[in-house]
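Repro:
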Amino acid sequence: MKKKCKCDYCGASPEKIKALESQEDKWLKTDGFYIHLVIDADPANAHTHGLVENFNHLDIQIAYPLPAKLMMILMHTIVDKIKAGDKIKDGDLLDYVLDNYNVKAIQMTEMGRPVMRILLPDVTGKFPDEEECDPKYKIQMKSEDLTCLKN
């Protein structure tokens, strides 16, 4: 059974949905993408929309519970590189996102569409797809089956 999503769209009034869509359209026109944050999901889910259409790149996703402001900073850091022409591929290690740590990109499916999920390492630098990784980071490998008005 699918769980209900906890994003800004699900459960919102038609007026709020219209306002959200209007803001997203503005961001698509000015920036070529926007970020959709679903902090209360299990796992948390921050992902982009617009990278495929405007930069010929899979949208990116972070699926780990972080403060919203930090998620936005990390996502913008990665998108800035994509906008400059970088193409992130499955298995790539990115050394420009966190100080003193790499992050790892893996291709996953998010609500039926392919995304490049950014994996955060544990404090020893191990990734959740490695056996030695701290178990609390392994939530990043989870795929949530949600019913959402906005994917």
